[in-house]
Amino acid sequence: MSIVGIAGIGLATSTPQAASGGEGFTPPGPSTFEYPAIAAGVTKPMVLIVLAAVLAFAALYATARKAAVVPGKLQYAGEQGYTFVRNGIARDIIGQHDFMKFVPYLVALFFFLLINNVFGLVPLIQFPSFSRAGFAYGLAALTWILYNGVGIYRHGVVGYLKNQSVPAGVTGPILVLIIPLEFVSNIVVRPVTLALRLFANMFAGHLLLILFTIGGEYLVFESGNLAYAPVGVLAWLMATAVSFLELLVQFLQAYVFTLLTAMYISGALSEEH
Amino acid sequence: MSQPPVHEPVRRSADPWAAVGRLSGGIIIYGAVGWLLDRWWDTSFMTPIGILFGAALGTWTVYASLEHQ
Asked: Which residues are paired to A39 by β-bridges?
């Protein structure tokens, strides 16, 4: 009862304060990420995710279409990106024997993610699609289906479950306790952390950018206090700095998602365990 | 079996996030077991015991699998 009472007082005192400020500063929150439908229930993030798919396809197609022996600048850039995923991720992680089958998925995944993430900084677009968790869960589900399917195809259902549930280096009666743990870890927790890592990074970065940008705008133009203006400028400088940080995070998250997908495939394929 | 594979992956696939998965996996599964036991026995202490046990087991699995490599 007393806790409810204190909470009630806290609420009662804080509400008039917020109201008395008139057009007080409203910080960005989860509701900032909820866009109204443009038409027929289609929202901006939905448009962006389709646009990213089209752009990823167009970019890779354009670089490969007129493949010349002596590559032009465009072809060179495309080949560099492709080689990065093919050799740097697929071949190094999955191994010479099996990796080529997975290169198309991994390359498409990487560029699709990269474009979606970079949308967060592209003027006028300025929204990383994967800051909506649903998209991240969808993409993680694709990877989940792929690595489980590949494992079952390679080892059979029982063989694959044994592969994923019995960790290397554990023997004896303790396996009774470890097997359910390892199963949950590899089959249930993995796709969730994969999706959450991408979503949380994009969400937090976008929130931070909005906060510094509109916070600075409020302090400089709307606070009505000249002494606040330098702090607002400082907030804008922070927004600029965070933009550079975000550029790194956007690339890194696309890379990590693709890298972990390759690792899960490699783990599902591996014989010894 | 004893014949070495011709093409090994350059980097042996050690998922760095496996530790997170094992810890949370242990907590989830043994926390759930504790919760079920609590409901069965009408007690309230089995859930925390299960969570701690799961965390310990997860940590041990991380250690055991790293030791193996």
From this structure: A42
Q: How many helices (H) and strands (E) does chain B have?
A: 2, 0
Does A188 reach chain B within 8 Å, measured CB to CB? yes
pLDDT digits (tens, 9 = 90+) for A81-131: 899 999 999 998 888 888 999 999 999 999 999 999 999 999 888 999 999
- The model's pLDDT over A188-215, given as tens digits with 9 standing for 90+, comes to 999 999 999 999 999 999 999 999 999 9
Chain B positions in Cβ-Cβ contact with residue A151 (cut-off 8 Å):
none
| Dist CA A93 CA A154 (whole Å) | 17
Q: CB count, 10 Å around CB of B15?
A: 17
For residue A167, the chain B residues in CB contact (below 8 A) are 61, 64-65
Domain range annotation of chain A: 37-269
Dist CA B55 CA A177 (whole Å)? 12
What is the pTM (predicted TM-score) of this model?
A: 0.83
Q: Which residues contact B9 (CB under 8 A, 6 or more apart)?
A: A92, A93, A94, A95, A96, A266
Distance of CA A116 to CAs A48, A55, A76, A123, A136, Å?
Answer: 7, 10, 22, 13, 11
Kindly indicate the confidence band of residue A247, based on its pLDDT and cuts at 50, 70 and 90.
very high
Check: CB of residue A193 under 8 Å from CB of residue B15: no
Give dist(CA A271, CA B64) in Å, integer: 19
CA atoms within 13 A on the CB side of A216: 15
- Is A178 part of the contact surface with chain B (CB cutoff 8 Å)? yes
Q: Is A185 an 8 Å CB contact of chain B? A: yes
Is residue A167 scored above 90 in pLDDT? no
> What's the pLDDT at A163?
86
